Amino acid sequence: MELSVSPQTQKMNLQTPRKSSLSGSRKDLWFAIREGSLVDVDSALTTLKKSGGNINLRNAYGLTPLHIAIWRNHIPIISRLLAAGADPDAKDGESGWSSLHRALHFGHLTVASVLIESGASFTLEDIKLQTPVDLVSGPIAQVIGEQ
């Protein structure tokens, strides 16, 4: 079975379910990341740490807070999440993409650099057995005429 990531699905993936059993700090973290508020992210991370929460918990679509920050291309938030222990190699529940897959797919090269510096793997495969580098090399090969 083949899954694709449509723009509509990406938009849905950014939304936290309204009714959920999420702890207050985790819900606040999702909201802060979605809104891009560094102050609110710092506050939510402090609360999460004090409560012993898990920075790598997932939403209904299998995404972690880091996946959302990658999609939003918000480098200061990404750096905060990584410093707080976010796993750069966590795969999403839809395509099996890691954060590096997502960054390279969207052309967020500075984000990819931050992830690589944080130890993100080049060799993780998604559900189509593609590595993060495969997501870049395919379009480049098409542009230069290689097959």
UniProtKB/TrEMBL annotation:
UniProt keyword NAD present: no
Keywords carried by this UniProt record: ANK repeat, Repeat
SUPFAM superfamilies from the UniProt entry: Ankyrin repeat (SSF48403)
Organism: Camelina sativa (False flax)
InterPro entries per record: Ankyrin_rpt, Ankyrin_rpt-contain_sf
Protein name: Palmitoyltransferase ZDHHC13-like
Start-end of each ANK repeat: 61-93, 95-127
Region (Disordered): 1-22
